[in-house]
Design brief:
Cobalt-precorrin-4 Transmethylase, domain 1, four-stranded parallel beta sheet, about 290 residues, alpha/beta, binds FE3-S4 cluster, Rossmann fold, 10 helices, 12 strands, 3 domains
Length: about 290
Amino acid sequence: MQIIRAKHAGFCFGVKRAVDKTLQLAKEGKKLCTLGDLIHNTIFVEYLKEKGIRSVESLLEVQEGECVVIRSHGVAPECYEQLEAQGISYVDCTCPFVARIHERVSREKSCHDAIIIIGKAEHPEVVGIKGWAGEHAYVVASPEDIRHLPPVNTALVVCQTTIRQELADALFSEIQQRIPGAELFNSICETTRQRQEETRLLAQKSDAMVVIGDKKSSNTRKLYEIALKFCNNTQYIESVDELLLEKFLNCDIISIVAGASAPDWIIREVETQMSEFEHAQVAEEEVKAAEEQ
Ligand code: F3S
């Protein structure tokens, strides 16, 4: 049995940057709260709570003396205005790749009839981008959404950083049929692309796949969908407690992939348990072989 861990597994650059900064400030004694969960991982959010870093849903919940952490997903400009107006201190951990989308839509919103965002309307990153894109911004996640777009002549199309490339390609083609002059800023993050491609390659050669990440994490769910497409024996787990070792019986190659918000310690726990299972299997086979002699 061979266990392969994906080269790109766990915290991406933007998440790691936000987590490191937050933990560093907490260590320095800063009283912090995060605006929304810092990352889409319940286990990690609990860990932050234990360190005294709570998560708030709105600025109304911020207490005297607390510094607000803006997570890697970014926020709409109104949020900065509110922070300034209420005199709340904050640390901005917006991922630079997301900030790049904010700048582009903000700069070009007056040059186009519409800014179209390919992504999930309720995803915090998309909510933030929509805020920067102004009043003629539309979010599309399906051909149906595209059919409901108002008639426009020009549009700038951007993507949520974590959506599947195939989905973005398919939806952009549809948009082009309605708006021939539509311009694409392919803002899918390179990290996302790499992980999706690596997951596809691993799933194609593996007998079993383990996808680690929170069930609420959209980038992890996409990895799961890709893995499942090429490997029926795929498990989507949040922690080692959910791992079903019996699914690895008679498997030669098992691969582990993890979403951008999966902490390294959870990946290592899964890996360790799988290695122990592998050793137990080898030992069992050796005993059987010895008995047969
Ligand atoms: Fe940033 Fe890409 Fe991660 S946009 S938050 S590095 S998935």
